[in-house]
Amino acid sequence: MIDFNKIKSRSKLYNFHSHTQFCDGHAPMEDFVKEAVAENFTDYGFSPHSPIPFESPCNMSMSAVDDYMNEYNRLKSLYGDRINLYLSMEIDYLGSQWGATNKYFDTIPLDYKISSVHFIPSFVDSKLYIDIDGRYPAFKQKMELYFNNDIKAVVESFYKQSIDMIEAGGFDIIGHFDKIGHNASHFKEGIENEDWYHKLFMRTFEAIMDNHLIIEINTKAYVEHNRFFPNIKYFDLLRKSGAALLVNSDAHYPQFINLGRNEAMRLLEL
Ligand SMILES: [Zn+2]
Ligand SMILES: [Zn+2]
Questions:
Q1: What string of DSSP letters covers 145-204?
Q2: How many Å lie between the centroid of ligand 2 and the Cα of residue 58?
Q3: What is the rounded CA–CA span in Å between residue 139 and residue 187?
Q4: Residue ranges of the domains in the chain?
Q5: Parallel, antiparallel, or unpaired for β 129-131 and 119-121?
Q6: I need a labelling partner for 141 at 20 to 30 A (CA). Which of 26, 66, 121, 209 fits?
Q7: How many whole angstroms from 153 Cα to the centroid of ligand 2?
């Protein structure tokens, strides 16, 4: 297991969450490494969306995993003298049948594991897992098609799935753990300020603390949408909680590897 504390104590220029040509990223892995080296990053981790047991345009296929590992090893031998590179995945949790504890992931020599919720079961057909992580226009359509436009139930399902994932374990870092707040707020303004929402957030946060997971501060949406995950209003809580924090850009483009990271670090006094 990587000593993230040691890395953080010697460098602010790290990123452990990024996507490349192997999933829904927009450039080859090598371009990210070149950019990271050019920006003097000390540590850089790749985390493609993991294989899942059904077709998804955003996730890596199982058949591509060998190519991913080979490319990682090639880049490590080429650039390893200038930057520490890491092999990882952002593993989807799909209930008890699929997640980081699945034996399949033990067969891949991952340096660390991120786990995130991007899919929840449809209210119309619970066997159908729906991606609720995408952009708002698609989310709005899915609310009608798969969730009877019941935003409170969608938020509850997202956090229930997150708590189940935390309790199942098998990973190191929890990815963007209140991400649903973004689309939910578009659907119903102010929803994140409602009491029941706050309670769900806190229940999830407490489960994370009880299970000693690393909390990711995800800066991907900072420039475009002026928000961090978790929501900036919880930064005081995060700062005082003593939780292990990592500031990741979740970059899908090489030029965005450091986007929003300095702002988050300043606010968190990291
Ligand atoms: Zn994600
Ligand atoms: Zn991601």
A1: HHSTT-HHHHHHHHHHHHHHHHHH---SEE-STTTHHHHHHHHSTTGGGSHHHHHHHHHH
A2: 10
A3: 9
A4: 90-268
A5: antiparallel
A6: 26
A7: 24
CB-count exposure of residue 10 (10 Å: 0-12, 13-18, 19+): exposed
Beta bridge partners of 214: 173
pLDDT value at residue 1: 81
d(CA 193, CA 181): 10
Cα angle 106, 207, 199 (rounded to 5 degrees) comes to: 140
Quote the tokens at residue 163.
């708590």
Per DSSP, the three-state class of 88 is strand
Q: How far is the CA of 203 from the centre of ligand 2 (A)?
A: 23
Q: What is the dihedral of CA 190, 58, 173, 1, to 10 degrees?
A: -170
Output the CA 18–ligand 2 centroid distance in Å: 6
Question: In angstroms, what is the span from residue 216 Cα to ligand 2's centroid?
Answer: 11
pLDDT averaged over 10-residue windows placed end to end, the chain, 270 residues: 94 98 96 98 98 95 97 98 98 96 97 98 96 97 98 98 98 98 98 98 98 98 96 97 96 98 95
Please determine, looking at this structure, whether the domain spanning 90-268 carries the CATH number 3.20.20.140.
yes
